[in-house]
# Entry
Amino acid sequence: MSEPILEIDHLQVEFRTDEGVVHAVDDVSLTLAAGEVLAIVGESGSGKTVTAMSLLGLNRSPNATFRGSARYRGTQLLTASEDELRAIRGAEMAMIFQDPMTSLNPVQRIGDQIAEQILAHEKLTKAEVRDRVVELMDRVGIPRAAERARAYPHEFSGGMRQRVMIALALSCSPSVLIADEPTTALDVTIQAQILERLKELKDETGTAIILVTHDLGVVADIADRIAVMYGGRIVEEGTVDEIFYDPQHPYTWGLLGSITRVDRDRGERLPSIAGLPPSLLAPPEGCHFRARCPHEFERCGQGPPLEDRGAGHPDRCWLTVEQKRARRVVDDGEIGLAAKVAVEASPEGLVDRRETPPGAPSRVAGDAGAAEDARVAEEDR
Amino acid sequence: MARFVVRRLVGMVLVLFAVSVLTFLIFNVIPNGDPAVRMAGKNSTPAQIEQIRKEWHFDESLPQQYLFMMKQIFTGKLVSYSDQTNVWEQIRMGLPRTFALGIGAAILWMTLGILLGLYSAVKAGRISDRVLTVLALIGISMPVFWVGALMNYYLGYKLEWFPNGGYVEISEGGIGEWLYHLILPWTALAILFIGVYSRILRSNILDTINDDYVRTARAKGISERRVMTRHVLRNSLIPIVTLWGLDFGLVIAGGAVLTESVFDLQGVGQYFAEAIGRLDVPPVMAVTLLGAVFIVVLNTVVDIVYAVLDPRIRLG
# Structure
């Protein structure tokens, strides 16, 4: 891997609220190399979106405190002035948001909204901007782009709007693309198309991507590395293979178990992790996952640091590698089931994972072309 | 679009019919309504009254009387019962004054409403915002005839900073005198609306500022000023602009009656108020119908403007 272009070091984010101080992000350290795809995975409230927003200063407010460091090519993002950040936003680091239905201004033409970002960073003539906008829209797969650039957001479907968001994000060829749950608000078939398109664009442009999602199934195909977040902390970090085939943290086991799979019996209930995420107003002492973890023992009362315990990648669980490998198979609780699935899948899965990726969304990806044709035909009507 | 306008025009005819019938009936059922007696004067003989009744068609049936009055209105021959002047001529004289008052006040309240609403939203929760909130509530709560009278008395009569009512044509006193005479009426009429508009805009802005597309705009790297004007303010203003059209219609169509009377502007509103006082049906009828036309037309214009400002709205 090349030099990291983005280095997050011991990032802490706190928000003062009426109920007290929310410790949204607690000591998160991550690096991103040029052209790399890093997935940040976790459930709602795990701090993944806050981490992403903090990079662009989009969640700055008088009630927010940021500690630690986040460096982008020498710029300290956490303490950068608004002017410095503005030069980076859109041009160097761009962001795709979760809900394409509400993320575009409803009363501005699509083309104008993309043009606004280009004009903020580059000196171009009107005609040049127009050409660039159409080219971008074309590149993300919007049919009849020149004509559609004059349309308003409500004249687009959700999937098409997310393509617009991607075109917008890519308009100034950023080095880093932050995609915050880019497919969550979309139909499963559209999800696959969008992910496919992101992957293609990444290969074409070499943009590094931070993909924030709660769905491990989404990241299998596209990510290089995965950081699993829970309760504001990273609980496990590794390559895709490490996380999928040798998951160390019981929470990761649970996440893997709750992927929708097409090869599982329909009647079988989708496994879920019992309980609720911890309150970030008063995070528990020690391991944040303790209260929901069937493997809890007295040592968990003191925070396990994020370190490599012999598996080859770091995690935050006191169990030994041997204990983990044994328990995630033997244990038949909700979480154990997940791990079993993951391990069972490994012998052949490791070989031809790219043809038969785990998780339903990826499986559908093969039909993306046909589905897209149908979609386009529908929109043409 | 054409279909929309045609439909509105048809609707307008229905509205005018309903309004005219209602107005006509009201003035026929209220006591002491016999215009012939009043026109004849105190020392009149029954024969004279009978004569007037015949001349003015008061002896005919109600539907016939109604039709006769409508004919007079639409042929421009309508004449006042009390002073026998032509109603349309009177209205034509008053209309520029009413428009001068209404347009000036509308510009004033829109401008100040936007400025104060924006300021209040930017300073939300701070002292200055709270002070503005209280001021807005006071402004909304003060009736125009009271504020107008106070202004007239203190600023006009006592301090002599402003003229004590009255209207000066631009052709007579020049634009300076014209403005000088209109400042107090404009202010008195606008105060209520400034309060309302600034409150509405403030809450619109505070809603909009948290919208996802505003965050998208920020993530583009455009200036905060541009985010505020092109995205937040632009979108927050849409409901205000439509409200503005409707309120302007209301002011022209009768909302300025009190202001005109207090400041003795001799506009259509004052003419209307005096006619009611004399139970003089023809001017009341004409002004009411004119107001109805104006409101329907402005409503149509507002709907069209709304569709232009917000492409999600379809005219139907």
User: Anything to note?
Assistant: Residues 330-381 of chain A have pLDDT under 50 and may be disordered. The interface with chain B takes residues 56, 58, 82, 85-91, 94-95, 97, 99, 102-107, 116-117, 120-121, 152, 154, 165, 168 of chain A (CB under 8 Å). DSSP finds 14 helices and twelve strands in chain A. Residues 140 and 200 of chain A are 9 Å apart (CA to CA).
